[in-house]
Amino acid sequence: MIGSTLSLCGALHSKLYAHLFPGDGLEAAAILLCSKVPGPRARLLAKEVVLIPHQACVRREREGLSWPGDYLEQAIDQGEPQRLALVLVHSHPGGRLRFSDVDDDSDSRVIPCVHAAYSASHGSAIMVSDGSMIARLYSANMGHVDVDLVSVIGDDIRLFWKSWEGCTKAKQCPIAFHPDMTLELGQLSCVVIGVSGIGSIVAEQVTRLGFGEVRLIDFDVIEKKNLNRILNSHLAHAEKQTPKVEAFSEAIKACRGDGVAHPLAVSISTREAVLSASQADVVFCCVDTLEGRQIADLMCSAFLLPLFDGGVAIPTRKTLDDQRAIADVCGRVDYVQPGASTLAQRGVYDSERLRQEQLRRVDPESFRHEVNIGYIKGVQVEAPSVITLNMRAASAMVNEFIARCYPFRLEPNRRYARTNFSLAACDEDYFSEASFEASPSLVLARGDEEPLLGIQAFGPAG
Q1: Which long-range contacts (CB under 8 A, 24 or more apart) does 72-76 make?
Q2: What are the beta bridge partners of residue 85?
Q3: CA 89 and chain centroid, separation
Q4: 402 near 177, Cβ under 8 Å?
Q5: Is the previous residue joined to 451 through a cis bond, with omega within 30 degrees of 0?
Q6: Is the CB of residue 248 less than 8 Å from the CB of residue 203?
């Protein structure tokens, strides 16, 4: 598994790129202000950027740059209240993705000034003309470590791994479905929220694709009614009411050995679950509650995580003889990137529906039960036979991840923010990111700021 990571949302990376490569072939500079994820993982989240105006630089050359300290003071003033890490970024128009002796000398003079202002994981980074980046972090005594991975979560998910001895270029992105893709996924962590009908199938796929770590979050236990649609569930699990995450963890261990599965048998609506999910690189949301989707939505923004959310439905209609018949067999897959449109802005949930869901859960007597809750809308079914539909949706979710991380589409990924499919109509509809209106997120790159996700219930105990 990888250690340190620097993550940027796609919009900020684009803004940074446009400034560092204005088209004149000369170096340029900026300063990233970064929060960090909670918990043990060393992961910085680019929250803001201070762009150093080209005209303000004392010297701008193809292989050299000098800029006034006023902008460093500005960044320190912005970052100190929240102890944000400062990462000094400059471009290498010549394409050399490696820190030079000049860069080393510059860091040795500037970074101590930042540490003198306040302590944090300050560092420096380089970007080259294809957008690739490398970074390094300094301790207070000026010992430094290379950042293992710089990730950009945008229309595409771009992974820039640290340079290696003698390397001057970024590692090439593996081809989708190639064994090299499996090797790279072995260094990443994913979290599957909801390990039931769709979630168990997603968990099966990411396990066999080779993710180095598979985190499983679900509070529920296996019952006999689940056995027809939860992979790796058995009669013995139902009889013992084994937690779903524990049953699937056993299956992962049998397939991959120890250390891959990390089960957590709690609701996603808990601080413990949010802390666990914050350690992942990718989120697959397979819950059947709006509250769960809201929390996944917030985690995507707060921790700069790519989010893949899916669901299925079987709406019914009344026939002329007052019987029920299938109106459609359909599903939805959304890819949500931090800084762009959220599930809420796409209409997946809203405050009124969240209120109704909470009322139904905490005070069912005050909320008349609606028949259209469940898989088959309008029909009460204890154990619906929907595994084939779930597999269709789960496969679409994981293939959407592969398409984002290892692009294989003939058209740009931005055109596929949402996919709706209808098995009844044999049809698929696609919606681009531009189809949805996005507004600024109040929790974007919030990181470990308390309370987590801006929700009081997720604040530290006591």
Answers
A1: 72/31, 72/110, 72/113, 72/114, 74/50, 75/31, 75/33, 75/50, 76/114, 76/117, 76/118
A2: 34
A3: 23
A4: yes
A5: yes
A6: yes
Q: For the purposes of burial, counting CB atoms within 10 Å of the CB of 166, is it exposed (0-12), middle (13-18) or buried (19 or more)?
A: exposed
* Phi-psi category of residue 166: left, alpha or beta, with phi > 0 → left and psi -120 to 50 → alpha: left
Tokens, residue 369: 């039960």
Average pLDDT, 10 consecutive residues per value, the chain (462 residues)? 90 98 97 95 96 95 92 97 97 93 94 95 96 95 93 97 69 92 96 96 98 98 94 96 98 97 97 97 96 97 98 88 88 97 95 83 61 54 80 97 97 97 96 94 96 94 70
Gap between the Cα atoms of 226 and 345, Å rounded: 32
Q: Are 421 and 392 in contact (CB under 8 A)?
A: yes
The 10s digit of each residue's pLDDT in 176-190 is: 999 999 999 999 999
Determine the Cα–Cα distance for residues 226 and 101; give it in Å rounded to an integer: 61
* Domains with residue ranges and CATH for the chain: 5-161 (3.40.140.10), 179-458 (3.40.50.720)
Please report, as a single letter, which amino acid is at residue 400. Answer: E
Nearest residue to 302 via CA among 439, 434, 448? 448
What is the tens place of the pLDDT at every residue in 107-141?
A: 999 999 999 999 999 999 999 999 999 999 999 89
